[in-house]
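Design a sequence for this backbone.
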């Protein structure tokens, strides 16, 4: 069972889907995450709120689908 995404992971995924970072500029996942992290840190709390709200919604949905789920690395 996959873990539900957090707000940053949703933001990073959105950046990749909308090609905010052009594929020709960078292809390594580590570097893409670094750039997305820098962009995330520049956002205000208000700009981050939709991502946190969506993450909370997905977490509730995940808990409903998998009520006995416990993360074990």
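Sequence:
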């Amino acid at each position: 069972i996959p873990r539900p995404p957090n707000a940053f992971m949703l933001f990073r995924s959105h950046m990749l889907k909308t090609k905010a970072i052009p594929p020709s500029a960078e292809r390594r996942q580590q570097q893409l995450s670094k750039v997305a992290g820098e962009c995330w840190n520049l956002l205000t709390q208000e700009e981050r709120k939709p991502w946190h709200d969506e993450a909370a919604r997905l977490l509730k949905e995940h808990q409903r689908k998998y009520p006995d789920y416990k993360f074990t690395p």
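Helices lie at 7-17, 29-42, 45-65.
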